[in-house]
Amino acid sequence: MRIAKFLPNRWTLLQKRVFQEICVLFFLTWAGLISLLLVGRLLQLRELFLHQEVSTLDIFQLFLFLSPFFLFMLIPVACLLSTFLVFLRMSNDRELVALKSGGVSLYQILPAPIVFSLLAASLALVIGLGGISWGFDNFRRHALDLAHSKTQMVLQPGIFHKDFPGLTIFARNVDTDQRLRQVFVEDQTRPEITAVIVAPVGYVVTEPQEGRILFALEHGRIYRLQHNAITELRFETYLVRLDLDQLLMGISVREPKPKEMSWADLRRWSSMPDLIEQRGEEFANRVAVEIQKRWVIPAACLILGLLAIPLAQAFEGLKRHYALILIMGVFFVFYGMFSTGIVLGELGIVPAYLPLWGQMLLFGAMAGLGIWFAAQERGLRIGEWVAHLQVTFGRKKR
């Protein structure tokens, strides 16, 4: 009777330790990946808001609002890596062998990674259905507030600025009121036409509601080159319109794109019977793909979390950095197929659900079969093969 009471507690303790170790590695991996992404974005945005009133706190607030989108995309790879590293360590340390010799099968360890993967999938689902739109809405509102009340594009004198796509801006001097003196602008935003604008005075005006920055020039000349012919024009005031969408990493500041919409908005658009006539086939396809993606990525968390278990046993015996390279190769294959499915869906070649959920079924079957073979100790032994090849090659070399 005492032994019967002791065994369930022992299995509960084992699963608890595995669950805790997976959680720790998950948050470390998650934090590391998102830090790499946000550092590059931070540098990009910090160059755009050059005015001294825009603090570093404002920039980090923008990234706080962007973080749900990045977190949503990174949860599957974090699930894969964290579960893989835990079971790889247990395999290399012969803990799995010791547990099997004590009568503990692989199936008795599975509740911990399954519960963890389900929690990660639930988190991804919550972020996908509500967090992404919340983040983008606040990012858009905060960026427009900065453009309206705080920011001005401060162009350093004597430097050619190419921050705007298709434009090169040069100002010899900049006054204390941010007026530019002796301004030179090369405009290549229109195909087959190159315009060179020279003006003694220029300044920047923001239109937050329209999502634009206006670069105003006064009392200047325009030299247009078209079909090997040069045309000279004089003007009193000339406006160069710069979209904020092009500056804020492609995030729309006016109407949200499908990837920035809430679940309610996506459903509302998809239920419109004349959506293709109103917005075009490309927009309708993007809405259909995004609806599927909000559910596919949470499902990928569960599938990749389970697929990591047989992969960890297959790579048993390899050094950790080699195993990480191989497991990242597996993820890149998964992500490549996922991206291909998105492209096929957006182009309308196949229905949006077919390639995305077809991939989930394929990898889900691989995970199930892999766990079954691993439990029967009949799985792949890539680590042993590599070690055997190294020994064989070393003997031939001698």
What does this protein look like?
- It is a single chain.
- The chain is an alpha+beta fold and 398 residues long.
- It has two domains: 2-148 and 268-397, no CATH class; 167-246.
- 62% of the residues lie in helices and 15% in strands.
- The chain has ten helices and five strands; from the N terminus they run H-H-H-H-E-E-E-E-E-H-H-H-H-H-H.
- It has helices at 2-48, 56-92, 95-101, 111-150, 263-270, 275-279, 281-314, 320-347, 353-375, 382-397, and strands at residues 167-174, 180-187, 194-207, 212-226, 229-243.
- A five-stranded antiparallel beta sheet has the order 1-2-3-4-5, with no helix packed on it.
- A hairpin with a 4-residue loop joins strand 3 and strand 4.
- Helix 2 (56-92) packs across helix 8 (320-347).
- The longest helix has 47 residues, at 2-48.
- The protein is elongated, with a radius of gyration of 28 Å.
- Residues 1-8 have low confidence and may be disordered.
Largest sheet: 5 strands, antiparallel
What count of structural domains?
2
Mean pLDDT: 79
Task: Please report the total strand number as a whole number.
Answer: 5
C-alpha geometry: elongated
Strand order within the widest beta sheet: 1-2-3-4-5
Q: Give helix and strand order, one letter per element, not per position.
A: HHHHEEEEEHHHHHH
Strand share of the residues?
15-25%
Q: Distance between the terminal alpha carbons, to the nearest Å?
A: 61 Å
Low-confidence segments: 1-8
Rg result = 28 Å
DSSP summary: helix tally: 10
Structural class: alpha+beta
Helix content: 55-70%
